[in-house]
Amino acid sequence: MKDLSATSRPEAAFVLLLMQATFWFLAGVSALPFVLGGEVYMLLLAAFSFALAGFTVWSGMEVVWRRRWARRAVLVLEWTCLIGSLLMLALPIGANRGPVSLLVNSVLPFAVILLLRGKAVRNQFGTPHSVTG
């Protein structure tokens, strides 16, 4: 019988993580034509975007499987993304401040954080192993 106290918040977070991974994958693909134009450092940025997208998909799958370390890793990643996007908005460095940028860089990580926080969700992620047995 299915546990009635179970929540589907990790599955909703997985969908948002897949969207975020898709955006990072497309950012990596869009950096590749610049490599052909002679900007070789863009290859490193594309590789980093691909790695970030792969890690996001992998950790998102682990969140669905209720792995404790995956929840922690996703929360660290999303807090890092949120703080970075807020810094980009605050500093005058020419970052995009449109509605799409706000949704992708600020609202999406904030939504994932909200979905994976709290004691009810934390209790569904694995059981801590006792040191004494």
Structural description of this entry:
With 133 residues, this protein is an all-alpha fold. It has one domain. Helices cover 73% and strands 0% of the residues. It has 5 helices and no strands. The protein has helices at residues 9-36, 41-64, 68-90, 99-116, 119-122. α1 (9-36) packs antiparallel against α2 (41-64). The two termini are 28 Å apart. 21% of the residues are buried. The mean pLDDT is 89.
Any chance you could write out the topology, listing elements then pairs?
Blueprint: H1 9-36, H2 41-64, H3 68-90, H4 99-116, H5 119-122
Quaternary organisation: single chain
Total of helices: 5
Proportion of beta-strand residues: under 5%
Distance between the terminal alpha carbons, to the nearest Å? Answer: 28 Å
Q: Point out poorly predicted stretches.
A: none
In short:
With 133 residues, the protein is mainly α. It has helices at 9-36, 41-64, 68-90, 99-116, 119-122.
